[in-house]
Amino acid sequence: MLTTADNIGTFRFVVxxxxxxxxxxxxxxxxxxxxxxxxxxxTHMSLFSNDANLFYDAKAPRQLSPACLHxxxxxxxxxxxxxxxxxxxxxxxxxxxxxxxxPTNIAWSEKNRSPLVRVPAARGTSTRIELRMPDxxxxxxxxxxxxxxxxxxxxxxxxxxxxxxNKNIFEMSHRERRHLRIGELPGNLSEALDELxxxxxVRDTLGEHTFSHFIAAKxxxxxxxxxxxxRWEVRRYLGVY
Length: 241
Description:
Blueprint: H1 2-21, E1 43-45, E2 48-49, E3 52-53, H2 66-86, H3 92-95, E4 105-109, E5 115-118, E6 129-131, H4 140-157, H5 174-179, E7 183-184, H6 189-198, H7 200-206, H8 208-227, H9 231-237
Parallel strand pairs: 4-5
Antiparallel strand pairs: 1-6, 2-3, 4-7, 5-6
């Protein structure tokens, strides 16, 4: 995991520097352009013991082992709690809106891309889950740590993820989503920080020093944002009121 986090940091550094050398600017901002899908950092995860993929069970339904399902359960349970870590900017939540492929619903599926967690069709040693909420502005060391700890918590506590939701959630009514107990991710950075403060597992994973300084810095960022008057507000309200 540490090597993967190093590789993410190296990748961003190289991309930005190659762009600069060619007179361009490469950004990993989650939602730089209105009306266009944002930039995600979909993260694929699996667990191995030597050469054996612990997420694969040839005899199980869907060929997914109990460990895989419980791992998904842990991810779903703690998704709200670690959302501020995997999606740490005010702008991150301009990407996490319905209609632009990024997930807003806490569910899992094999056959569509609207839920939070997708299980790709490959099996055997390629069995894995895909978490679709993180974006590339995150600190990969913190983000990978809280994702892994959440999944392992699911295995330890045998958390049931429930049945897969193989219908497009974006097309469901609010009543249908409630009936299926499909939750939603935080709608903005402030809500995500509230959820982070309530999740003891994520807090313990970060450690008190990192947790307290992260919360303080992001609360300051949010307060600075809500004081700002955007062009959208001026265009929308100035001539009307």
